[in-house]
Amino acid sequence: MKHSVCRDLAPAYIDKLTSEETNEQIEEHMNQCEECRDYLNKMKEDLFLDDENEEKKDKRSIDYFKKVRTKNRKRTLVIVSSLLAIFLALITAYYFVFVNMWLANSGNVETNIQNHDTAVTLSFKAKKDNHYIITTDAKTDEGYTDTIFVYEKRNDFSTPAKLLQDGVNITYTFLDENTLLLDNGKEKKLTDDDRVSIQYKDKTDVIPIKDLYDTE
Ligand SMILES: [Zn+2]
């Protein structure tokens, strides 16, 4: 085999594309020809280095994609947290404008018990300007417990001004010291278990209803 033929076939031989017969001829020639052997070894090394470089390049491009992905993740995080912040701000604004009613601190409420003959009136009044008191009243007929929740409210746009009174009065009408006249016209014999409980944010006052009559 000629040197030139051997060298021409070298790349194909390294890639194992040559036939069995050609391989034998090449190997036979290389056994005798040091030049061609060196040539082939050198070519093998070069190809191997090329492969290595190729791998490094691949790795570098993978790193690049990783970086891009991390960047995207950060951007998503920023967007999500911004949306969350806006959402919270809107909720806060909503509560400030529309839902400004809260259980009142007893310190902000002027609570009085007034007696007019057989009627006893609990009155609640806001101490602050532009604040109003709203009460919700939960009565249970069985073992008469009257629970009054005392709310405080800002003057705002959501409530017509005429609905906001200067104070809230809750009146109990006694027939005698042991008998209460209920709203539905029925009479209620009072025991020591019959109480009114007034709930503020910071405390709950529980008063036996009999004691209301006694305050005179
Ligand atoms: Zn040769």
Structure description:
The chain folds into 2 domains: 3-95; 102-214, no CATH class. The protein has helices spanning 3-14, 20-32, 34-98, 209-214; strands at 101-103, 109-116, 119-126, 131-140, 145-154, 167-176, 179-181, 187-189, 195-199, 204-208. Strand 4 (131-140) and strand 5 (145-154) form a beta hairpin. It has 216 residues and is an alpha+beta fold. It is built from 4 helices and 10 strands. Zinc ion is lined by residues 3, 6, 29, 33, 35-36.
The tally of helices reads 4
Overall shape: rod-shaped
Give the distinct bound molecules: zinc ion
User: How many domains comprise the coordinates?
Assistant: 2
Judged by helices, strands and strand pairing, the structural class is: alpha+beta
- First-last Cα distance: 134 Å
Residue runs with pLDDT of under 50 for 5 or more positions: none
The total strand number stands at 10
Mean pLDDT: 83
- Residues in helix, %: 40-55%
Element-level helix/strand string: HHHEEEEEEEEEEH
Largest sheet: 5 strands, mixed
Question: In percent terms, what proportion of residues is strand?
Answer: 25-35%
Integer-rounded radius of gyration: 47 Å
